[in-house]
Amino acid sequence: MGNEIAGELQMPAARRWPTQSRSRERVERILAAASALIAEAGSDAMRMSDLAERAEVSIGSLYQYFPDRSAVIRTLAERYNAQGRECIEEGLAGVSDIPGLKKAFSELVDTYYGMFLAEPVMRDIWSGTQADKLLRDIDLADSRANGALLAEVLTRLRPDADPGELAHSAFLVMHLGEATMRLAISVDRAEGDALVEAYKRMALREFEG
Amino acid sequence: MGNEIAGELQMPAARRWPTQSRSRERVERILAAASALIAEAGSDAMRMSDLAERAEVSIGSLYQYFPDRSAVIRTLAERYNAQGRECIEEGLAGVSDIPGLKKAFSELVDTYYGMFLAEPVMRDIWSGTQADKLLRDIDLADSRANGALLAEVLTRLRPDADPGELAHSAFLVMHLGEATMRLAISVDRAEGDALVEAYKRMALREFEG
DNA sequence: TTACAAATGTGATAAACCCTCATATTATGT
DNA sequence: ACATAATATGAGGGTTTATCACATTTGTAA
């Protein structure tokens, strides 16, 4: 099925599904080139002509696999999100009480923050360059998915609390976490660190009930 | 001084300062037209040609007062921010204890949320369409200014706490408030309301120390 | 191997848009 | 009324995205 291939490649916005191996390599070349260009000058500055040249592919080929310019960026964003979600899933696995959750969450925030600081592409894509609605939708879906992971743990650890309220709280905590990261990487390092610490305090209190 | 005129008109990005009254009216016509167009189809869809036609002005005239397309949007954003800041300043005036602060803040959040829900232009501009860095800078400066207002009250009410930490906390609370609004208007109304409530709980706890 | 069909690759070019600038019009001061 | 400064105009230059008719490569069966 084409969909499984799509899942493997994480190409929700693709136009033509690559069935031959040569075209899969091609798609990877395009994405690698996009990554490099974004790291160098930001996603705004990425031109389709540059991308074609860097990937050693014609412009027409770009549009074989991506319906438009922003789809390339969205695909990268989703890859990074998937990577982050794995991180969260691992971090929350095996948590069995509230103090454990606090510790795990605190470490997750640090890990995430480190990823934001280290990955120029992630920095760029999530630092507010959300020109199109589809990219915002991806952001929202990401918060939702991460929030669901957290909510699951919370409802398990606090069976007496209202699950609906916990779900909203978890969703918000995750979304504001992303917002905090974006803020933190927009200011100087010292202030960014302090803001991340302040966020952690706020979020951890939320787990106490 | 041209700067005073600039201050009155809130046109930080203007190219030529309007000295004749006719051109001031013109600028207002342009901004009103921009507002209408954005309310109708979003800022992404606002074309300079449409704007010129709607404002009954030539394209060249647009560039007499705005250096580029995004400057028009930024000017509107700054006007809305100024309006919001006045709101906050009023709301926090006369607060004399922590319970009072909690009540005032809670009401401010409701007011702000109401503004976001009611104003299509504000919705659009702040709902994530931050394609260019300058608009993000405006967002950041806004959070900072609002945070400073809150920090002032907090340091007054809690003289024993570390002022630096309070400042970071206030900045973060204000910034995450904006993030919450953006999130709330992106989901359905019931969920949005619940998320705003969750944010209020989180923020209010932060004031307790 | 050869031939044929399906899949994939190419780049000139259409279409859309932002912004400039030479020129025309209007306002202000004498 | 005249001169000069301020403002208004819109055709066109320049840039970028995306298309599509045609060329090339791959897979397959005789």
From TrEMBL, chains A, B:
PANTHER family: HTH-TYPE TRANSCRIPTIONAL REGULATOR PKSA, HTH-TYPE TRANSCRIPTIONAL REGULATOR RUTR
Name of the molecule in the record: TetR/AcrR family transcriptional regulator
SUPFAM superfamilies linked to this entry: Homeodomain-like
Superkingdom of origin: Bacteria
Listed InterPro entries: Homeodomain-like_sf, HTH-type_TetR-like_transc_reg, HTH_TetR, TetR_C_22
Pfam families: TetR_C_22, TetR_N
Domain HTH tetR-type: 24-84
Gene3D superfamilies: Tetracycline Repressor, domain 2
GO MF annotations in UniProt: DNA-binding transcription factor activity; transcription cis-regulatory region binding
Keyword DNA-binding: yes
